[in-house]
Amino acid sequence: MNLCVRIAFISLWLFPTSALSAQIGLLLPVINNIEPNEVAIFNVRVTGFDSIVGMQFKLCWDPEVFEYVSTSGYNLPELGGEDFGTSEAQDSGWIRLLWDNSNLLGGVTVPDSTVIFRLRLRAIGQVNDGSQVYFSQDFLTPFDIVKANSDSSLTSYNIHQVALAQGFGAIGYTVAADEPSVLDDDSLKIFPNPFSEKTTVSFDLKISSDVTLLVMDATGRILLENKMPQLPPGHYGTEIASPQVRQKGTYFFTIRAGMHTYTRLLSVF
Description:
Elements: H1 3-11, E1 25-27, E2 30-34, E3 39-47, E4 52-60, E5 66-72, E6 84-85, H2 89-92, E7 94-100, E8 114-123, E9 130-136, E10 144-148, E11 154-157, E12 163-165, E13 167-171, E14 189-191, E15 198-205, E16 209-216, E17 222-231, E18 234-241, H3 242-245, E19 249-257, E20 260-268
Parallel strand pairs: 1-12, 2-13
Antiparallel strand pairs: 1-3, 3-8, 4-7, 4-9, 4-10, 5-8, 6-7, 9-13, 10-11, 14-15, 15-18, 16-17, 16-19, 19-20
């Protein structure tokens, strides 16, 4: 099935809905003490993967810390290298996954903790560099996991309905796999949104952390980036003006704090 047909097909999955069942999960590992130039293998595991007929998302990392090598270890029916968009992986620090299964009535079920594929990244940063490796989305690849129901309907799960355990790669040092969230998720506010001239983003930082603020367009291109090393705990705010995002439309605003990533839609009219 060619890519254009598959994108159109998956967009239809957004319409059928039914009651949510056991929560689906995607998990990435925390890998410590990676040697410079070593290839780190990030196993992508699943939980609650029951009667799944398709999924799409992005996997992202810092391209100054890790370099894309390959994907491997495909462990779902009809999943292979052709399901990954990697043409911009070297420069952008992300790949796209678009997979669908031909069994639309039954889907695919695998045991919890099954590794469905592996992402191989080479450490090109220096000792004490690190990068989150995380599940994300954009307009070309909105996050979507689709489940077949017993009544032959389909349910689509978005990024807020799936339990995500984001990963991290640490070059030459160790971080805790269960590092607590450094940002109060409920405190992240964008007002007004949509906006025509400017908007204010505010958030509360619970512990000291490096923080990066990003605004990306539909292709994943970074329009704004503000790196703030070792911010102390407290309340923070920043203003975004419409000329900075160049034209009307919907964008992705992302805060990266510690090992965690928080994303909101940002609309300009």
